[in-house]
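Please, structure for the following, as tokens.
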Amino acid sequence: MCLAIPGRIKSIEPFKDGYMSMGKVELGGIIKEINLQLVPEAKENDYVLVHVGVAISIVDEEEAKSSLKFLEQMNELDELYNNVEEPFDKLRTKDERAKQGDEIINKMMS
């Protein structure tokens, strides 16, 4: 099953021409680099729902914390925690991740 996981935006990367908006989002205590293109109005400390590395909507803090608690109780965050040993940053360069995010969003929008 694919889940959208709530997380809090810790920081937003400066926008680079030709790239999608990216930021660091805390998901259950783990910080991941997330594509923020679909939530351009999001700002630091906002809570967002993240699905496959893309923030898909902004949610309020109470809803985010309630959902995260429920997911933890259901052991639905195991994959997130188990991927900590191989950080996302080691898999590809930042530019490669941004390019891949661009491709995914462009496919979704077409």
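The chain has one domain: 5-109. Confidence is low (pLDDT under 50) at residues 84-90.
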